[in-house]
Design a protein that fits this description.
Layout lengths: L3 H4 L3 E14 L5 H4 L2 E13 L7 E8 L20 H4 L3 H24 L12 H12 L3 H19 L3 H5 L6 E3 L2 E2 L3 H9 L4 E5 L4 H14 L4 E5 L9 H8 L6 E3 L5 H6 L8 E3 L8 H8 L4 E6 L1 H4 L2 H13 L4 E3 L6 H14 L29 E2 L2 E3 L12 H9 L30
Parallel strand pairs: 5-6, 6-7, 7-8, 8-9, 9-10, 10-11
Antiparallel strand pairs: 1-2, 2-3, 4-13, 12-13
Helix pairs in contact: 5-6, 14-15
Length: 437
């Protein structure tokens, strides 16, 4: 391992980004995810250090915000950022405006990184320092903070020749099981054949139909773990009755059964099926979230790093959940392979710290948006996410292919750097200087 005195001399010498768009479409259960166009930003940092012996290398991040309204607040990770007028706009418009605003912030962000004073560069070789720098430069956009932090931590992991998961937790799990989103017995059978033993059903307005499907899954796969996700769509007054219909299937939990879930938990509800907090957790301050997680009705916390604002923010949420005796299920937000790989690394890092031994399946199965990309996340295997072969995210060597895909529909004038996605790049950085040769 390189001595700390040398590692402190690391510098970001280039920042490159491209706007990206890709379709999320599918059949079966994927239809309930809703066909949609995902848009965001692919980010690449070029960095140098004494251990590179005069050359440079790259790391990657991806910002792909979900089309959801702005969270109210979170003391664990300040989110903020959208005006009240914008928050009342349709969800797609909110996501699009957030994306455009974060793009507008990238030029100043890039210059700040490239021109980072030497005395502040020590932050580039410290996990908390990287997180603080991402919060400072990318506020108030959670997805952009996630992208920047991923790239900064990925660079740090590559310098230390470890995976990003090992950077976050030295004893990171090599393999973590995943759940599969299914909408029929046929899809469950296909998932089971891939080694998946945990099924998740997207729940709709027809609870009777959902109950029939879940009971069929229980009958067909008696040892499978079953989960449901209502996405906060049920009226609060109907939650108890709807969960009673689903209870015979023996579910682990139902995610977000209704809006204002924390308020219902505060009333001391005793529903027949456990629940999990997901998006609603990010609307709570630390005390409110602690109280919600302390409810015996809650089985787990679901964390999407894109929405939480980064890997360390997700880790902080998981630590709070663990203090309340509840496990954390890391999941994606229908992003591309770079963000998916980062989520997989967080899941591997969190597994050893989970209450109950860390055997809870995570929400990181292949999703329909990944099919559009020419590069797959290297962590994605049959029935699990596993350690990738290379240090960092394991995708850095495929940067050229990823940027070629992102650039096909984007405005090239957005980019401020022409640095190559391959290792040992020496092309122009955001400040117009040349990287070392």
């Amino acid at each position: 391992m390189t001595p700390a005195s040398s590692r402190a001399e690391v510098a970001v010498i280039g920042v490159k980004w491209r706007s990206l768009r890709f379709a999320v479409a599918g059949t079966g259960a994927a239809i309930r995810l809703g066909p949609q166009l995902r848009e965001g930003t692919l980010l690449q940092l070029t960095w140098s250090g004494p251990e590179r012996e005069g050359s440079s290398a790259t790391s990657l991040g991806e910002a792909c915000p979900l089309p959801v309204a702005a969270p109210r607040r979170s003391s664990l990770q300040p989110l903020g950022g959208l005006s009240a007028a914008t928050a009342r706009a349709p969800q797609r418009q909110v996501a699009h405006l957030a994306h455009l605003a974060s793009l507008a912030s990238l030029a100043s962000l890039a210059r700040a990184l490239v021109e980072l004073p030497e005395r502040e560069r020590r932050a580039l070789d410290d996990v908390d320092g990287c997180a603080a720098l991402a919060r400072e430069l990318a506020a108030p956009w959670p997805a952009l903070r996630f992208a920047l932090e991923t790239a900064l931590l990925g660079a740090m992991a590559r310098r230390r020749e470890v995976s990003l998961a090992q950077l976050l937790c030295a004893s990171a799990a090599r393999r973590v099981a995943v759940n599969a989103v299914v909408g029929s017995a046929a899809e469950a059978s296909a998932a089971w054949a891939r080694g998946v033993s945990c099924f998740k059903v997207k729940l709709g307005a027809d609870t009777a139909a959902d109950a029939r499907l879940l009971c069929a899954l229980r009958e067909g796969w008696p040892t499978a773990r079953l989960r449901g996700d209502a996405n906060g769509q049920w009226p609060a007054a109907e939650v108890a009755a709807r969960l009673s219909e689903l209870a015979p299937a023996g579910l682990e939990y139902v995610e977000e059964p209704c809006a204002n879930l924390a308020a219902e938990l505060a009333r001391g509800v005793a529903w027949p099926v456990p629940v999990a907090l997901d998006e609603s957790a990010l609307t709570l301050d630390e005390q409110e979230l602690t109280e919600a997680l302390g409810s015996p009705q809650v089985a787990a916390l679901v964390v999407k790093p894109t929405c939480a604002g980064g890997l360390t923010a997700g880790r902080a949420l998981a630590a709070l959940a663990a203090r309340c005796g509840k496990p954390t299920v890391t999941t994606h937000a229908l992003e591309g392979p770079v963000a998916f790989a980062a989520c997989a690394e967080l899941a591997r890092a969190l597994a050893p710290t989970q209450p109950g031994g860390g055997d809870l399946a995570v929400g990181l199965d292949h999703h329909p948006g990944l099919a559009a990309w020419p590069v797959a996340p290297p962590q994605l295997t049959e029935g699990a996410v596993c350690q990738a072969g290379d240090a960092g995210l394991g995708l850095e060597q495929r940067g050229d292919e990823l940027f070629a895909f992102a650039s096909r529909d984007s405005d090239d004038s957005v980019g401020s750097s022409d640095s190559s996605g391959s290792d040992d790049s020496d092309d122009s950085d955001a400040g117009g200087r040349r990287g070392p040769r």
